[in-house]
């Protein structure tokens, strides 16, 4: 039996259930009580304290930037949690489409392609998972370990909570540290499970376009002409073409659904991408982060990956969907009936508008958009570096 395509996302859904953002899909009333308490204490309160901390942070660039790193990331996490809380019905619909017979396939090539892309997605999930775990260990667990072993001064891992008095913060350092450590792990999990999920949805659509292009090209060789009279052969080939047209229509509907799922989230993800990459680059210049190069490197890698991969996959999907018109011309259409050619022309006309996934219909998910974001981030970084050098020279 062919494994459903949606099974590739089992790890994502498992984490969403554990961390209380899969509320609408779990009918248990006790789970809903757990979810409300969990979200209030580790999501809304945590975000509120981050905002309060930023308000009280001294307006000096070397002090302000370290406090801004996680706050910027949290701006994107806000919309990712919104996606999970309010788009779960659409996510379930996307899962149902992935598991339908048209997508799971009835040919060896389609089954193998789906299997390959599911395996590729699971590898990507594991890579992203471990990059985030290394980042977390370097910023939270290693300083805590050094504190207990060597008795070094312990600083709060995420932000300094400037709204607290120094006495309060120092006397309750372990309590505040533990709260930030737990909440940060939860929010980090929201981040990488949604990022990988968005890329995974695009990846599965890309797999279907690859399958469809092969199906169209293979219509001419999908049966032995000597076994069927011409009329039955034409009817059989026309039937295969109609199946491909239905597959294409379903695939376009799937792309509309997934764009609706992640449109808002990706808009803010790409928007915040400029700020987060700029701030991360600037952080490498600060003495505060000299002992945290592992954290900065893994954090920068994760922030770059979460905007690069959707852009890269969006570009591949666009190109693969544009191949539909060319693929259909590879079938044995010249000697076919007029009804076959009419169906063929219908598919060609529809394929003249390739799929282009966008963020809120404002900008496309593409490599071009990613490059523009990185260029803007670097330009902002150079400006910030000039300000930093000027402040340093004035101080000296």
UniProtKB/TrEMBL annotation:
Topology class, membrane: Multi-pass membrane protein
Residues spanning the membrane: 33-56, 68-86, 125-149, 266-286, 293-313, 362-384
Alphabetized InterPro entries for the sequence: 7tm6_olfct_rcpt
Domain of life: Eukaryota
CC annotations in GO: plasma membrane
UniProt GO MF annotations: odorant binding; olfactory receptor activity
Keywords, in A-Z order: Cell membrane, Membrane, Olfaction, Receptor, Sensory transduction, Transducer, Transmembrane, Transmembrane helix
Annotated compartments: Cell membrane
GO biological process: signal transduction
UniProt keyword annotation of Transmembrane present: yes
Matching Pfam families: 7tm_6
UniProt keyword Transmembrane helix present: yes
Family: Belongs to the insect chemoreceptor superfamily. Heteromeric odorant receptor channel (TC 1.A.69) family.
Protein name according to UniProt: Odorant receptor
Source organism per UniProt: Plutella xylostella
């Amino acid at each position: 039996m062919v494994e459903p395509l949606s099974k590739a996302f089992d790890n994502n859904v498992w984490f969403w259930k554990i961390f209380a953002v899969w509320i609408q899909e779990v009918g248990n009333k006790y789970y809903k009580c757990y979810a409300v308490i969990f979200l209030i204490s580790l999501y809304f309160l945590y975000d509120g304290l981050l905002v309060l901390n930023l308000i009280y942070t001294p307006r000096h660039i070397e002090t302000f930037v370290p406090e801004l790193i996680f706050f910027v990331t949290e701006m994107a996490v806000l919309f990712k949690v919104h996606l999970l809380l309010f788009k779960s019905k659409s996510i379930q619909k996307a899962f149902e489409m992935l598991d339908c017979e048209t997508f799971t396939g009835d040919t060896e090539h389609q089954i193998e392609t789906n299997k390959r892309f599911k395996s590729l997605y699971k590898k990507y999930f594991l890579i992203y998972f471990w990059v985030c775990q290394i980042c977390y260990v370097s910023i939270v667990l290693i300083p805590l370990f050094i504190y207990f072993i060597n008795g070094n001064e312990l600083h709060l891992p995420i932000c300094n909570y400037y709204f607290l008095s120094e006495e309060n913060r120092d006397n309750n350092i372990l309590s505040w540290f533990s709260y930030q450590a737990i909440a940060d792990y939860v929010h980090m999990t929201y981040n990488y499970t949604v990022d990988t999920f968005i890329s995974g949805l695009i990846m599965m659509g890309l797999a279907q376009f690859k399958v469809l292009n092969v199906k169209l090209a293979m219509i001419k060789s999908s049966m032995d002409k000597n076994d069927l009279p011409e009329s039955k052969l034409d009817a059989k080939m026309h039937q295969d073409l109609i199946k491909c047209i239905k597959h294409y229509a379903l695939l376009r509907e799937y792309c509309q659904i997934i764009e609706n799922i992640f449109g808002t989230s990706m808009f803010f993800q790409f928007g915040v991408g400029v700020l987060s990459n700029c701030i991360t680059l600037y952080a490498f210049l600060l003495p505060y982060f000299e002992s945290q190069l592992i954290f900065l490197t893994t954090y920068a890698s994760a922030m770059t990956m979460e905007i690069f991969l959707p852009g890269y996959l969006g570009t591949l999907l666009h190109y693969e969907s544009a191949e539909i018109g060319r693929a259909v011309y590879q079938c044995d259409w010249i000697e076919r009936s007029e009804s076959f050619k009419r169906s063929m022309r219908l598919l060609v006309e529809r394929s003249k508008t390739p799929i282009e996934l966008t963020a809120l219909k404002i900008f496309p998910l593409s490599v071009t958009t990613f490059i523009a974001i990185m260029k803007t981030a670097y330009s902002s970084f150079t400006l910030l570096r000039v300000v930093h050098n000027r402040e340093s020279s004035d101080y000296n």
